[in-house]
Amino acid sequence: MASTPPHLPASDSLATRARDHLWMPFTRHSVYEDGGQVPVIVRGDGAYVWDEAGRRYLDGLSGLYTVQLGHGRTEIGEAMARQAAELAFFPIWSYAHPRAIELAERLAHLAPGDLNRVFFTSGGGEAVESAWKLAKQYFKLVGQPTRHKVISRSVAYHGTTQGALSITGIPYAKQPFEPLVPSSMRVPNTNAYRAPEELRDDEKAFGRWAADRIEEAIVFEGAETVAAVFLEPVQNAGGCFPPPPGYLERVREICDRHGVLMVADETITAFGRIGDTFAMSRFGVTPDIITCAKGMTSGYAPMGAMIASDRLFEPFRHGSAMFLHGFTWSGHPVGAAAALASLDIFEREGIHAHVRENEEGFRRTLERLHDLPIVGDVRGAGYFFAVELVQDKAQRLTLSDEQAERVLRGYLSTALFDLGLYCRADDRGDPIVQLSPPLIIGQSEFDEIEQILRTVLTEAWNRL
Ligand SMILES: Cc1ncc(COP(=O)(O)O)c(C=O)c1O
Q: What is the pTM of this model?
């Protein structure tokens, strides 16, 4: 009886109850109102999940870029249960508890450079929001009160709260909520496939060009008004844009030259996704702030963090200064226990090394799809790849809005799922299919992903 609310007939399926009462984020509910069935996932084990009818799916997106270590890790659940029994909740507002302390210490050791100060949040958007607010308050405390603006990159997604959404570079996601927090502006991202034609064959020149657009924006706005540049080491929205060689180094130099903070939004790229705890460490560049979330607990609990450098904490060490900001759930003991247990497994099982050893195999397997006429580009890093779809390969011509609607939304997502692959078909930028699987998989799962994509993309071409 416990699972069926008393006011509903027991015969109603979970899908029907979801349709009637669950308000799903970023979801066209008309699909379900018009007879579509809400997919209900009931169980997971390793890289696979099962729906209520017992069908199995390869989790090609790690849930939502979260389940790094795969599903069904009872060890993490047990650590959480122990913590709930010992101390389920206590805030870290002027107090502390062991798990938050241990996790902060561990993240500080894992983070690059002198990023030693960990401010916990419950997700990525809150971490981004926190970073912008810290940048503003920090500059006021150090006597540069006009620095408040932020620069971020086109098509980048940084969250949905009003500050994080303002930093986001996806116009249609912002329009319903305008006016947002003022003072954020966009520069080009590092989509090499769509680079200006004269730079397409020279990655370094493209990287230099893209970084210089940031400097141009800083100078144009007046450096004394700019607080921070936000960027993902490998940009998610638009489809896994890695940094061209030299790009992050140059952005670092530009930020230093103009006294602007460099914020690496590692909500997706941290915790092994790119083969290291933080992608910025792998790329050898130290930002002033890292924002992270998702994979920190391998998805077993909601948890995020903003990790700031010693320099940014310094003015808060004295007198009456305090960061006037926080969340009830900051540093939740059960979430922190999940994160610590997850980090233990990362170390014990050598997950970063596994990703580094296999990333080229993953790339090569996906690159086999280049023989299909609809596949324009395969790109990414670590266990984070996108396949871009085009209607004309030679001209790199993207799908029309009508084709994207009909084929991407109307066919691809469902067809991939029906064949047993959960992943993302996305047209926030140019249309892509995105893969971000659990970090434990190897060649046999890469092959399975390629086979399903091949079948569905072949049919998608026929339907264009
Ligand atoms: C780069 C980046 N920043 C921020 C966010 C927002 O994170 P959350 O949904 O946990 O608020 C996301 C979510 O996907 C993200 O990819």
A: 0.97
The per-residue pLDDT for range 224-278, each reduced to its tens digit, is 999 999 999 999 999 999 999 999 999 999 999 999 999 999 999 999 999 999 9
Cα(178)–Cα(132) distance, rounded to whole angstroms?
Answer: 19
Structural domain range at position 143: 75-349
Strand partners, 59: 422
**Side chain identity at 154, as an amino acid letter?**
S
* pLDDT score recorded for residue 8: 46
* Tokens of residue 287, six digits: 């930002």
Backbone angles phi, psi at 334, to 5 degrees: -70, -40
Q: Nearest C-alpha to atom 7 of ligand 1 is from which residue?
A: 124
Q: Which residues line ligand 1 (CB under 6 A)?
A: 123-125, 128, 157-159, 232, 236, 265, 267-268, 293
Residue closest by Cα to atom 11 of ligand 1: 125
Q: Which residues face 117 on adjacent strands? A: 308
In this structure, what CATH number is given to the domain that contains residue 392?
3.90.1150.10
Beta pairing class for 226-231 and 149-153: parallel
Bridge-based pairing of strands 424-426 and 397-398 is: unpaired
Please write the tens of the pLDDT for every residue from 154-191. Answer: 999 999 999 999 999 999 999 999 999 999 999 999 99
Tokens found for residue 92: 């870290």
Shared domain check, 80 and 59: no
Strand (E) or helix (H) holding 305: strand 304-309
**Are residues 193 and 341 both part of a single domain?**
yes
Distance 125 CA to ligand 1 centre (A): 5
Q: Which atom of ligand 1 is nearest to the CA of 122?
A: 10
- Residue of 128, 161, 166, 267 to mutate, ligand 1, most atoms within 8 A of C-beta: 267
Ligand 1 center to 395 CA (angstroms): 33
